[in-house]
Design goal:
5 strands; alpha+beta; 7 helices; 4-stranded antiparallel β-sheet; about 15% strand; NADH Oxidase; homodimer
């Protein structure tokens, strides 16, 4: 196979993709085409992984009952988290945030990590077992980008008790919970993160993130 | 700002990027342009993060002495990991693998996570503190893709003792180690992972990774 040449136009478009990706909480109710969903997950499953262990496990939540239980659990966890905020102004801003689209998104996918995969033969994780989970996180990011490039959007839900969600979805005991994802078409694309628009937290300059030794 | 439209040509090129990304261990010695390096890191720093906490901390290793100490440590850790393989055939295959390009890559970047960032005000991680580190992992993946789109390559080194590397690089005590990255121009692009070409572990079908509830 001849290696592709990625020209500057593509690199610029990729930067646009990073810039317009967004964590989506407001979805249209339009379904995702079944073929698109499959293609997106197949792309995610080609992500890099430590030792090529491919530890990601995608659980498509199709049961309306399970989805509603999940949404109620996340609502309760969000309320509990609000209770931990001591600054009243920040508590108001928190109350104004929409934190998930679990009731509107056409697809909900829970992502787990297989902590004891047969694939990979342990390569690369003898001293850093967490690299398995990191691989699964990268698969989520791949899905995120691939979805946005096709006009879809993804929202990562993390305000929940992993043990509760794991029990709810009845998965093998050697799987550990990584994320709940809402997937669908965003209501309105935006170049600025919702948390920045709603005055929660702005982007900080690279200079504060870069060091030398 | 008008939202960009990502057409099918771009989506197809993005798929090519995912397909040709690779974990690179064989580098040319050509330097990375300083402007390119800065642009890549700035792109990585626009990654999604829980609560917009931006917990990634990039440490550019410029000291030749530190780089050599790092390379020796990884060599020793790789040998120790080899000793854990019981199957002689697999041990031979392991011995044939090149596991890092720490001595050739023009840039070495250690990535840490700030476990107590001021940014983000704790949003989204009350019940899942690990989402901070997951955000930093996604920044690494962003850097990986952005680099490949510009003809560069990245290799993630994980066969090392995180405590040793953390001490070596003398970072604040509330930072935790995530990755050592080699960055440069790959010797030869390839569509097939080195671990697959060298018969370590092949890609597995999506059907074995996808479940329903």
């Amino acid at each position: 196979m001849t290696p592709p040449v990625f020209d500057t136009a593509f690199a610029a478009q990729l930067d646009e993709l990073f810039r317009w990706r967004r964590d989506v909480r407001h979805f249209r109710r339009d379904a995702i085409l079944e073929a698109d969903l499959h293609a997106l997950l197949a792309t995610a499953a080609r992500s890099p992984s430590v030792g090529n262990a491919q530890p990601w496990r995608f659980v498509r939540v199709r049961s309306a009952m399970l989805r509603e239980r999940l949404a109620r659990h996340v609502d309760a966890a969000s309320q509990a988290a609000a209770g931990q905020l001591t600054d009243p102004a920040r508590r108001d801003r928190y109350a104004a945030l929409k934190l998930h689209g679990l009731r509107e998104a056409p697809e909900v996918i829970a992502v787990f990590n297989d902590d004891a995969p047969t694939a990979g033969y342990g390569l690369g994780r003898a001293t850093m077992a967490e690299t398995l989970r990191y691989s699964t996180v990268i698969a989520v990011h791949t899905l995120w980008l691939a979805a946005r490039a096709r006009g879809y959007g993804l929202g990562w839900v993390s305000i929940l008790d992993p043990d509760v969600v794991t029990a709810m979805l009845d998965v093998p005991s050697h799987w550990s919970f990584v994320a709940v994802l809402c997937l669908g078409t965003p209501l309105a694309p935006d170049a600025v993160p919702e948390l920045e628009r709603r005055d929660w937290q702005a982007r900080e300059p690279l200079a504060e993130r870069l060091f030398e030794r």
